[in-house]
Amino acid sequence: MSMFGGGGFQAQQSVNPQNIAMAEQELDMVTDLFNRIVDSCYTKCISTEYQQNDLSQGESVCIDRCVAKFFDVNAKVGEKMQQMGGAQAPQ
Amino acid sequence: MDFQRYNQAEQAQIAQMIEHKQMKDFLRLYSNLVQRCFNDCVTDFTTKSVTGKEEACVNKCADKFLKHSERVGARFGELSQQMMPPGSQ
């Protein structure tokens, strides 16, 4: 005998599986990009001598530049791929 | 990442998915770290247990990797924010 009726507000909203799949793909893409940057920049910047627990000044600067460059390369390759796609489409 | 454009029910399901993936990511990080520090630090097989020197190396290796990924995360956040300022969608 509720004044508010049986159905809650949330029950009226339907889940579109396509939206969930889209969100999942976006999440996976970003996670994958991040993990690849961590791997690449570790290989390029961190000395495996392991002299200290902290990042050295040089390593820190290297990481900052490495991440920025990875983003740059990512964008440049993306542009290139888009051009390729655009050139192929009109035929 | 901005999931505001989805309705409440969808957002709830996405939140659940994120939680599930975080667990998976944590396990991945763990095994990755073990492998990395083992490869970089353990090279001497004249003893059966990890030597003091190796252990010190593993400690530094693990600390360094976690600090590294923290710093990458900070820069990653800043750069993605720059590329896609909030409210641009």
Radius of gyration of chain B: 19 Å
Strand residues, percent of chain A: under 5%
* Ends distance of chain A: 67 Å
H/E series of chain A: HH
Tell me the greatest interface. Answer: A-B, 37 and 36 residues
Shape of chain B: elongated
Rg of chain A to the nearest angstrom?
Answer: 23 Å
Overall geometric form of chain A: flat
Describe the structure in your own words.
- The complex is a heterodimer of chains A (91) and B (89).
- Chain A is mainly alpha-helical.
- Chain A has helices spanning 17-45, 57-88.
- In chain A, α1 (17-45) crosses α2.
- Chain A is flat and about 55 Å long.
- Chain B is mostly helical and 89 residues long.
- Chain B has two helices and no strands.
- In chain B, α1 (8-41) runs antiparallel to α2 (52-83).
- Chain B is elongated.
- Chain B starts with 7 loop residues before the first helix and ends in a 6-residue tail after the last helix.
- The mean pLDDT of chain B is 92.
- At the A-B interface, α1 and α2 of A face α1 and α2 of B.
Task: Please give a handful of descriptors for the protein shown.
heterodimer; A: 91 residues; mainly alpha; 2 helices; 67% helix; B: 89 residues
